[in-house]
Amino acid sequence: MNNNSSNSLLSYSLKIFLFLILIFTTKISLGAGEKISYPQLNWSFSGILGTFDRASQQRGLQVYKEVCSGCHGMRLLAYRNLKSIGYNDDEIKAFAAENSVNTINDDGEIVERAARPSDKFVSPYPNDKAARAANGGAYPPDLSLIVKARPDGANYLHALLTGYVDAPAEKKVPDGMYYNKYYSGNLIGMPQPLYDDGVEYADGTKATPDQMAKDVTAFLAWASEPEMEERKQLGITVILFLLVLTTLSYFAMKQIWAPVKNR
Ligand code: HEC
Question: How many CB atoms lie within 10 A of CB 28?
């Protein structure tokens, strides 16, 4: 192989590499801006370097607990998982103990006990039928995975929670239904959950519907993918490793072929 052909081989591989990077980055930016129907917010957890905002998540847990948990369960989340959003063991224990679960005692009877950190979040209704019966036939879905379960989940959820407006005059809104400009078909069985000062934040943040929607979304986004931060970190480590490895292999290749080329 003479110098010329090894150079063109190098520039070929470089072109392919750059092309792949181009495809990769376009895909990422398309993915982020695909849905234009709801406002696109700048979430701390989006992007390849995104991380969760602990303060916002903690406020979001408060919104979930004080507003949403009346109708929606989060049965995939255990109380002890709250450790990763910054709560300590005692806080988690106290938080869990506010709920009770059924258990079987030594005599085989069903009795109630306070929930423990290892228990999953207690759902508001004993079963789906009870949930429907209490909500005029509509089923309030479990929120554990909701951010992953809807396309563009975080933006959708924020939009849905802040999308309650007066229905246009020609639109009939049946009893037990509510008008929401971002819900598909516009008629939803969930009454507007967020109003000004619906909760009182301990850190003094003003509880506007927009703020509460952002916070509860940050909390639910974490619940949908608790390992997101580690996943992104691992990705970056792997890419860095591959870059170093590629550079090393390139120079090793040069060295190994040097005697052949210089003959
Ligand atoms: C009074 C009960 C009630 C409360 C409180 C409530 N919801 Fe709902 N929610 C419902 C019902 C009922 C539905 C199902 C609506 C339907 O199918 O038409 C629903 C549906 C949803 C959906 C699914 C929408 C979709 O795309 O299918 C999401 C997401 C949601 N609620 C989030 C929340 C959040 C977050 C809160 C707290 C801020 C909350 N809800 C508070 C009753 C409630």
Answer: 12
